[in-house]
Amino acid sequence: MLAGPFPYTVVLHGPAGVGKTTLAKKLMLDWTQDNLAETSNSAFYLSCKVLNHMGTCTFAELISANWPHVQDDIPAILARAQKVLFILDGFDELKVPSGALIHDLCGDWKKQKPAPVLLGSLLKRKMLPKATLLITTRPGALQELRLLTEQPLFIEIEGFLEEDRKAYFLKHFEEESQALRAFDLMKSNAALFQLGSAPSVCWLVCTCLRQQMERGEDPAATCRTTTALFLRFLCSRFPPPRGGGPRRGLQAPLQPLCLLAAEGVWTRSSVFDGEDLRRLGVHPSALSPFLDGNILQKSEDGEACYSFIHLSVQHFLAAMFYVLEPEEQEEEGLGGCWWHVGDVGKLLSKAERLKNPSLTHVGCFLFGLCNERRAMELEATFGCLVSTEIKRELLKYTLMPHGKKSFSVMDTKEVLSCLYESQEEQLVKDAMAHVKEMSLRLKNKTDVVHSSFCLKHCGNLQKLSLQVEEGIFLDSDSALESGTQVERSQNEQHMLPLWMDLCSVFESNRNLLFLDISQSFLSTSSVRILCEKIACAASSLQKVVLENCHLTEAYCKDLSSALIINQRLTHLCLAKNALGDRGVKLLCEGLTYPECQLQTLVLWGCAITPFCCAELSSALRSNQNLITLDLGQNSLGSSGVNMLCDALKLQSCPLQTLRLKIDESDARIQKLLREMKESNPQLTIESDHRDPKDNRPSSHDFIF
């Protein structure tokens, strides 16, 4: 509970369904019952959904629309404005023309003005500047509120925290083991777990998984994607009759329900009144099965209004609108009523999704509904037909064209997320058919899972660039101090199998030749897995870059083994890793083996000193394939260069390019370099004068 006195403007923000309206109404009750003030106060509740339908009126009429009995008291109430609370609920649902809230502002509460002008006057403090405003909104409207309000206090409403969700599951299930199993399954799906901050989503998940467990089914696959769980929940609300087949009377109302959801997404509405239903040609009786099944909920405050149990359920049903084949009579009945609903191309348009972020969620659900097994489940429950053309439509707008390096309208991360949601291997193969290069940034477990699933079906991929951000592997050197032993153990238990699954692509994809994992935070265990896959005899990898990955000597034994086992590996870049002398000595062990086919080795800025140069010299004598060696930004001194000279003077040494950090003022080093050139004319020696703080020219340019 907020403690008084209030600032003039308070904004409660948070995702759908977390209790913003409930809290606002509780505060309103406390305000009027004198719990937050010393004297009697007045409070007015304004719904943005209602304001959307109001025309020109006075401010007095605006605030007394639902309380006609206070009409006569308005002057007295407004006279003590500092004791008046206005609750503006659902600001994100307000539909007004651009600029309507800031133009023609008015301070006269008796003057007739359009409702948006009166509302803007209240927000901009032209009307009742001393009144207290409490605004609820979803995050998408925060930027606009920052511009409209003066010195607002923003309070985030988080809904159920993790411990709250767990407690809810334990209360819902009779058996603790089932509750914990269901909770872990929801937690394994990051998108679903985030939605679980809303109590209604927790109820939905619990209800669905409990039914599956009671039937002896394994619910793991259901929780793999949000689409799968929502579809299973929807179908479970309408069990088939004893004789089998779909229940009668469900097919006809499904289309209007999905139309309502889709139109609401495009018009940014989540509450629908009788006027909305009449405009769309939807009869209230068509919604009855879904009210009974707790898909919809009905408010009886004034005129009956309908809303979905959660915004994500509306997004899911909006996606279903695009996959359902309407029957002829449905098409005739609804054909002229859904001009607000854009086609698939518009739904996936970047410009439209920037204007309306909800379209992104609908698009992801649309991919999820393209799964053949889910289509069969939908058809079996409702007796409807699912479009066979929708996959072609999605591929049309997401397929990477020949010769292009990016997808058509969606960025790579979003494409992978949508393709994973489909769980349809052939769809992934078709979407990725022309992809030869891909760059991915792995920020969390979800990114690893989505990337792994899609990369397995990207058969023509030739070059892959990955960036693993800090925190994915908690036992990385940078996280050792902050992570407890228990956290690191749990992290390994969950992340390493997923990482291993992703790395399996490095040995299974016969076309993958280039792998770049730079600017990344890896752990000992993750590097070991990586090296195992690179070293696999089946791997086709030729060029590997592990630049600035916080590698140390602890990783070099595994890397050395990879040099011996993978005889296709010809280029290796380990630049900007503090391998040190001991690490380089371990690498030299692999270089000396005749099986090693390495042609280019980059050890730029690897903290090397003269103490490993004897081993490097020995490796140069033994290795007959190495033609490029980059030792730039390492302080080798004249003694180190002298040891290298012993090998490089030999005519049998195949090295053609050597990069060194050269002290031009050191006469001894200059003499050694001249001797090397005279003895080995084919050798090119490049001087590296760059400041070590600067980023060196990309190893991509040097190697590829």
Helices and strands in order, then pairings?
Elements: E1 9-13, H1 20-32, E2 42-47, H2 48-51, E3 56-57, H3 59-63, H4 74-79, E4 84-89, E5 113-114, H5 115-123, E6 132-137, H6 142-148, E7 153-156, H7 162-172, H8 176-188, H9 190-195, H10 199-214, H11 226-236, H12 251-266, E8 271-272, H13 274-280, H14 288-292, E9 296-299, E10 305-308, H15 311-323, E11 324-325, H16 328-334, H17 344-347, H18 350-355, H19 358-368, H20 372-382, E12 385-386, H21 390-398, H22 412-422, H23 425-431, E13 437-442, H24 445-455, E14 463-468, H25 485-503, H26 505-508, E15 514-517, H27 524-535, E16 543-545, H28 556-565, E17 571-573, H29 580-591, E18 600-602, H30 613-622, E19 628-631, H31 637-648, E20 657-660, H32 667-679, E21 684-687, H33 699-703
Parallel strand pairs: 1-6, 1-7, 2-4, 4-6, 13-14, 14-15, 15-16, 16-17, 17-18, 18-19, 19-20, 20-21
Antiparallel strand pairs: 3-5, 8-10, 9-10, 11-12
Helix pairs in contact: 7-8, 7-10, 8-10, 10-11, 11-20, 12-15, 15-19, 19-22, 22-24, 24-25, 25-27, 27-28, 28-29, 29-30, 30-31, 31-32
Region (Disordered): 680-704
Biased composition (Basic and acidic residues): 686-704
GO molecular function, one term: ATP binding
